[in-house]
UniProtKB/TrEMBL annotation:
This is Cytochrome C. PANTHER family: CYTOCHROME C7-LIKE DOMAIN-CONTAINING PROTEIN, LIPOPROTEIN CYTOCHROME C. The chain crosses the membrane at residues 12-35. It is found in: Cell envelope. One of its GO terms (cellular component) is cell envelope. Residues 132-217 form the Tetrahaem cytochrome domain. InterPro entries: Multihaem_cyt_sf, Tetrahaem_cytochrome. Its cofactor is heme c. It comes from Bradyrhizobium cytisi. Keywords: Electron transport, Heme, Iron, Membrane, Metal-binding, Transmembrane, Transmembrane helix, Transport. One of its GO terms (molecular function) is metal ion binding.
Length: 218
């Protein structure tokens, strides 16, 4: 009986299977990597703004507290974007004729808010409150990164479900005393977990309930 397959057929079959598995594995890694890339998560993306506002200058160099501009962060669901009047508290006295601040002056004259492009934005199906997180000891830096070092604001974290759940499963390392909530450079004095556990006990955080679906999806 004539031989149907050549002596090298088995080798070619093995190589083909190996190549197929390599392509499948590489494709999976590529898809996962692309899904987690800054392009898809919008991390480190600096959207154009009507005014080139620098957190590095205002919060870092001048030391302006986050709550001066984001006045609703301790009392409401949203941190809030500062009204034009907040900007003009200083800029009616300094840099009064700066061309890059013309949109601010025009906003005040027209009684229209500055059309800022929101950087830290969650999907509509996610329920999130700034005031609750602040009250429980979660600092601004934990979610927004070192915003005091950003010349132009960008999203430091992807705000994925994984990111939120990682903290909700074990929030203690991310908790800090209330007088350091807006301190971007704050580090725990000793062990982060021990200090966080003390804060959690003081604030009455209910461990085990933070990962229930209804906490973030209502």
């Amino acid at each position: 009986m004539a031989q149907i397959f050549s002596p090298a057929a088995d080798t070619w079959l093995r190589m083909s299977l190996l190549a197929a598995l390599s392509i499948l594995a590489g494709g999976t890694v590529g898809i996962v990597g692309f899904a987690r890339s800054s392009y898809m998560t919008s991390t480190e993306f600096r959207p154009p703004q009507p005014v080139p506002f620098s957190h590095r200058h205002h919060a870092g160099e001048l030391g302006i507290d986050c709550r001066y501009c984001h006045s609703g962060v301790e009392t409401s669901r949203r941190a809030g974007l500062p009204p034009t009047e907040t900007c003009m508290t200083c800029h009616s006295q300094i840099w009064t004729n700066a061309s890059m601040l013309e949109p601010v002056r025009q906003s005040l004259a027209d009684h229209q808010p500055i059309p800022w492009t929101r950087v830290a934005k969650l999907p509509d199906y996610v329920f999130f409150r700034h005031d609750v997180h602040i009250a429980k000891g979660v600092g601004c830096e934990s979610c927004h990164g070192r915003i005091d070092q950003m010349a132009l604001t960008y999203r430091a974290e992807a705000f994925t479900m994984e990111f939120c759940l990682e903290c909700h499963r074990d929030p203690t390392p991310n908790l800090r005393p209330q007088d350091h909530i807006t301190d971007m450079a704050w580090k725990p004095a000793a062990d982060a977990r021990s200090e966080g556990e003390a804060t959690a006990a003081h604030e009455g955080i209910r461990f085990g309930e933070l990962t229930h679906c209804y906490v973030c999806h209502r």
